C-alpha cells in the first residue's frame, strides 16, 4: 500500500497510514519544492530497524517526486532530534537481526547522504551518535541555540567505536584533529561549540524550523544540475568506499557488538539511562 501512495497523499493523509502501518515519521510540504520529514518515534526517536527502514523508504518516495528539490529532516520532539541507534537493538541480539539492523543503518546513511535532494537538518533537540550521523549526512545544519543541547559522537562512552564511514564523515565535517579528539573523548558539543568547529552551520535563537524552511527554499532556487553534480563530486568517494565494503562492515559491526565485553558495556549503559 505504501508504494502506491504518492508523497503528497502521504502528507495529507497520515491517518490513512497509521491505521494499517506505523510509519514512525510524518511528511509535510511547506511549499511546492520543499518536503519535511519529521522523525516521530517516541520517546527519543531512536533508530530501530523499523525506524531506519521507514526513514529510508520515505526519503526515496520524496525523491521520486521531481517537483521536490529540498528536504528538511526534523523531529516531532522539541527536546530530542534523535537519541541515535536504538541501543536495545544491540543488547543481546540474534546475529541475524543484528546484521539486518546494521544493513538498515548503512542503507539509511547511503540514501540520505547521496540523495539528489538538498537536505537541511533542523536540530531542535539533542543529537548524539546516530542523531549526529543523520545531521552530518545532510547538506546544511541549523540548530537551536539552547546551551543544554548536545550534538556529537559519544560512541566510546558506550564502550563501542564509530564505524569507519562515520569516522570519515566526521573528519570531512570538522577536520582530522577535532574528529580524533571528539571521537576518542565521546564528546557532545553545545550548539556554540558545534558552530565553532563546523559541525553545525547556523544556530538560531527563535524558531529553528522557520530558518530551516528559508534555507531549504534558498537551496531549491539553485539549478539542480549544478548542485547535484557538485554533491556527487564532494560525496562520491565516501559513498563508493562504503558500497565497496558493505559486507566487511557488517562483519566488523556484528563481531564487535556480539563480543561479551561489548555486551556488558551496553547493558551497563542501558541501566544508567533507565536509572536517571
Ligand atoms: C560498533 C558499533 C557502532 C555503532 C554506532 C552507534 C551509534 C549510536 O547511535 S549508539 C546510541 C548512542 N545514544 C546515546 O548515547 C543517547 C542515549 N540517550 C540519552 O542520552 C538521553 O536519553 C537523551 C539525552 C537523548 C534524552 O534524555 P531524556 O532525559 O529526555 O530521556 P531519557 O529518560 O534518558 O530516555 C527516555 C527513555 O528512552 C530510552 N533511551 C534513550 N536513548 C535511547 C537509545 N539510544 N536507544 C534506546 N533507548 C533509549 C531511555 O532508556 C528511557 O527509557 P525508559 O523510559 O524505559 O527508562
Automatic annotation (TrEMBL):
Keyword Acetylation: yes
Domain of life: Eukaryota
GO biological process: fatty acid beta-oxidation
Pathway: Lipid metabolism; fatty acid beta-oxidation
UniProt KW keywords: Acetylation, Fatty acid metabolism, Isomerase, Lipid metabolism, Mitochondrion, Transit peptide
A GO CC term attached to the entry: mitochondrial matrix
Quaternary structure note: Homotrimer.
Family (UniProt): Belongs to the enoyl-CoA hydratase/isomerase family.
Protein name: Enoyl-CoA delta isomerase 1, mitochondrial
Species classification: Eukaryota, Sar, Stramenopiles, Ochrophyta, Bolidophyceae
